[in-house]
Amino acid sequence: MGLPEIFFYYFAIMAVVTAGFAVTRPNPVYSVLFLVACFFHVAGLFVLLGAEFLAALQILVQAGALMVLYLFVVFLFNLSEAKSARVVHRQAGFAGIVSLILVALMVIFSVQGVFRGPFRELVRPQTTDNVSFVAGSLFTDFLLPFELASLVLLVVLFGAIVLGKREEGE
Amino acid sequence: MIGLTHYLILSAILFIIGVMGVLMRRNIIVILLSIELILTSVNLNLIAFSHFVNNPTGQVFVFFVLTIAAAEAALGLAILVTLYKNLESINVDDVNQLKG
Amino acid sequence: MTEAVVLVPLFPALGVLLNLIFSRRMSEAAVGIMACASVGASFLSAVVAVFGLSQMEAGHRAVETILYQWIGSGKFSADVGFLLDPLSSVMILVVTGVAFLIHVYSIGYMHGDPGVRRFFLYMNLFVFAMLLLVLGNSYVILFVGWEGVGLCSYLLIGFWYVKDSAANAGQKAFVVNRIGDFGFLLGMLLIIFNFGTLSFTKVFAEAPHVFNSGDFMVTLITLLMFLGATGKSAQLPLYIWLPDAMEGPTPVSALIHAATMVTAGVYMICRSHVLYDLAPASLVVVATVGCLTAFLAGTIALVQNDIKRVLAYSTVSQLGYMMLAAGVGAYTAAIFHLMTHAFFKALLFLGAGSVIHALHEEQDIRNMGGLRKIMPTTYKTFLIASLAIAGIPPLAGFMSKDEILYSTFNAGMGGWNTILWSLGIFTAFLTAFYMFRLVFKTFHGECRLDPERKKHAHESPPVVTIPLVALAFLSAVGGFLGIPIFLKYNVMHNWMGPLFAKVAQHGGEAAHAAHSLFAELSLMGISVVVATSGILLALIIILFRPGIAESIRQNYSGLYNLFLNKWWVDEMYNAVVIRPLWALSGFFWTEFDGKGIDGTLHGIANGAQVSGGWLSRLQTGFIQNYALTMAIGVAVIMILALF
Asked: Is the dihedral of CA A126, A131, A132, A133 positive or negative?
């Protein structure tokens, strides 16, 4: 068992475990924190896959910005107390079964190699670091989506402000 | 050897955990978090494919997914805040006015 | 002058129109006068037209006037036109003449009735339709008139529609006629099929070339049309509506159910004589049915106690004689009897109406008696008519009836005609008997009226009695139009013979020439003896020895009940035809319509509603339910992709 494998299994198992915890805690604060841990381990997996840039992005954006945002909202409105009598929804049992079926199916598909070629040929020459690997494609083939993404962020900015505005007399 | 299949199975498991969170929890915040988890599993999937096929498209896609995930989380929270102000509850069962 | 024929149906039509528009504002008398005037003008036009016809050469007396083309459909076309020939000329004179007298009578009879304007409207409409029937130049126009008189009959029978029995009688008449019309229509369709046209001139010209004597097709056609005739002319098996039709006002009974409408069947057969001469089998059927009907109706009339019922069954019986005549090929005799019958039967009905009115709506002859002193004019005219119908010379009925019986005796039906003749003679005896039973019970003997009625009983006003006298005159002398051939001048035969001579094959016309004088005289003698004995028997039983009647009633109670209950024909129809039809209809109504169609429709509607209810349960309002549905969908697709 070489080092990559050990790291892989560590990151994988930890990701799954923390994700499981995140989903099952009654207190949303705990959920957020567990999810942050999960993101860190997923970032580790990204690194294993040679996508360091994206690993950094993952931590910066998702763990850093988004989760902090969630925490802000939770604390601002005092939502940390569990306000529902039941933690789990009424349909949980059936949903669980369906989920298990789904995962089984997905595993079967993955194992069977259902998703086989033809994969597109490598367009750009091999480069040494991930950033240029990504950038080479991002700023040429995907330039338009890149610009549009910034537009999306602008729209979301407006939307969030409009939705969160205080009404008169509040 | 860790192959593509391992990563696919892993991302499937993460995906399902996220789906279960969406389907089974009543707290809206947790639901939104589960959605983030789903998106993350998808990212993992994309990067795995990108690595094993040697194609940057997957990673470029992750770039955009991250962007959109952030956008969606922001708006989702904004809606949650509005909902909380009107309903005094973040129980998803209370958001059932479209019942037919 | 024959152009005047167009005016003949025009005047009554005009009367209808004016009545529809103006009658509200006119007084009762004015409406009556207007109606009579239109029929009277029609009669005058008919006289002019027939006179013009008589100026033409015998054998070519046929004037066809076409007004316009009504139907033009591919190769088939039908025109609106009139055919004036000896046959239709006799008919229009009889129809308009008798109708005029009855209209005048009605002014008096219907006086004070709230629906009198409606009455004259229907009466004029009837005359119009009847004239169309007899003047039409094709089966199409004939049928239009046929249906028209059927409609007017319905309207007039049910004139006092508030009365249940009247409304039912009207409906019965119409439905039974409909059954006959079904046969008639089928016959007409077969004619179209074989000839391509319904025009009289064309069909009758071609018939001998298209059919051989005794062909199945022509026999079928004639039998089907005879079915229609049995409905309209009240023969077996469709006569049942005529006695019930007495619910209508008496002038209606006189005009429609005695003198004119019921003769339409006879007219139709005579008009189609070319076809009937080509189907000897049908003629035998016609003659037999006619004879049997005459006999049956005569037996029923023997024991009836309502004055109008006796006359109704008498009408059925006399119509049977006309059919018998047509069946043996003696078409002229049939029309002759039709004419004389119109005179004396109309007179009998009008006289009965006079009695009924005078006695304040009493119709049971057991409650009458001794009226000849109170109502002399009515009595005398009634007596003349009764003598005529019984067949006493030299009155009209004797001439026509004798000619029928003579033709029957000489017909060539291989012996069957002798049986028919004997039945006919016996029925003549019955006729004499029941008519004079009626006369004696109503007008002679002690007065059995209840005192109140007796006090107010009086002779009818002149507007009623004058038509009676006119008809009595016609009943007396009308017969001289057809005096037996040995006296050399027979108006009817000279007038109508050429029309019927063309395809005559057996019986009637041809046989008239070759016979012995002795045979004719002796047959005449037998008729007279039979009639006189009938009258004498009635005299004895009714007037002198009432006890005999009572004892006969008791000893022969079976027969008596059979006749009194009309041979239970109505009851039999009810059980065999009507009840099963009702049951079948009811079954279809509840099963197919109720459960089947309604059930299906309700079921579909219900199903839609129920399934809608189920489906609406999908919309719980819970977002996670929807998310779960999506997950299930994905799983399903993946499972499908797996295979």
From this structure: positive
Residues of C in contact with B23 (CB under 8 A): 624, 627-628, 631
Assess whether A7 and A59 both reside in one domain: yes
C-alpha distance from A63 to closest chain B C-alpha (Å): 10
pLDDT tens by residue, B14-61: 999 999 989 888 888 899 999 999 999 999 999 998 888 878 889 999
Q: What is the DSSP letter of C411?
A: -
Give the residue-averaged pLDDT of A119-145. Answer: 75
How much is the pTM?
0.71
Q: Say whether pLDDT at A38 is over 50.
A: yes
Q: Which residue has the tokens 């006092």?
A: C160
Which amino acid does the sequence have at A75?
F
User: CB of B45 within 8 A of CB of B8?
Assistant: yes
Q: How far is residue C3's CA from residue C67's CA, in Å, rounded to a whole number?
A: 12
Report whether pLDDT(B90) > 70: yes
Instruction: Say what the pLDDT of residue C503 is.
Output: 43
Give the chain A residue whose CA is nearest to the CA of B69: A62
CB pairs under 8 A between A and B: 228
Answer whether C621's CB lies under 8 Å from B96's CB. Answer: yes
Query: Are A102 and C624 inside 8 Å of each other by CB?
Result: no
Angle A114-A118-A123 from CA coordinates, rounded to 5°: 135
Place of tokens 């409406």: C31
H/E stretch holding C555 reads helix C546-555
Q: Could you tell me the two tokens for A16?
A: 């799954």
Q: Which of C620, C621, C624 sits opposite B23 (nearest CB)?
A: C624
Confidence of residue A86 (pLDDT cuts 50, 70, 90): low
Chains that touch B (3 or more CB pairs under 8 A): A, C
For residue A99, is it within any domain?
no
DSSP H stretches of helix in C158-240 = 164-195, 200-210, 216-232
Which among C251, C228, C21 is positioned nearest to C126, based on CA atoms? C251
Closest by Cα among C167, C164, C275, C169 to C229: C275
Query: What count of Cα atoms within 13 Å lies in the side-chain half-sphere of residue C270?
Result: 32
Q: How many Å apart are CA A90 and CA A53, to the nearest integer?
A: 42
A11 and A72 belong to one structural domain: yes
Please give the residue range of the domain that contains residue B8. 4-91
For residue A115, is it within any domain? no
Q: How confident is the model at residue A42 (pLDDT cuts 50, 70, 90)?
A: very high
**What total number of domains does chain A contain?**
2
Q: Kindly report the CA angle at C133 between C129 and C136, in degrees rounded to 5?
A: 120
In terms of Cα–Cα distance, which of B85, B57, C210 is closest to A165? B85
What is the rounded CA–CA span in Å between residue B81 and residue B96?
17
With a CB cutoff of 8 Å and minimum separation 6, the contacts of A110 are B5, B8, B9, B12
- Ranges in chain C, pLDDT < 70: 482-494, 498, 501-516
A33 falls within a domain: yes
Cβ contact C635–A105 (<8 Å): yes
pLDDT for A88 = 63
Rg (CA), chain B: 17
Query: How far from C615 is each of C567, C612, C625, CA to CA, in Å?
Result: 68, 5, 14
Q: What is the predicted ipTM?
A: 0.91
- Tokens 């509200």: give the residue: C24
Parent domain of A43: 1-93
Confirm whether A152 is domain-assigned: yes
Q: What is the structure's pLDDT at C505?
A: 39
Report the distance separating Cα C65 and Cα C67, nearest Å: 6
CATH of the domain at B23: 1.10.287.3510
Chain B stretch 4-23, residues whose beta carbon is closer than 8 A to a beta carbon of chain C: 19, 22-23
pLDDT of residue C120: 93
Q: Which residues contact C47 (CB under 8 A, 6 or more apart)?
A: C93
Residue B25 in domain = yes
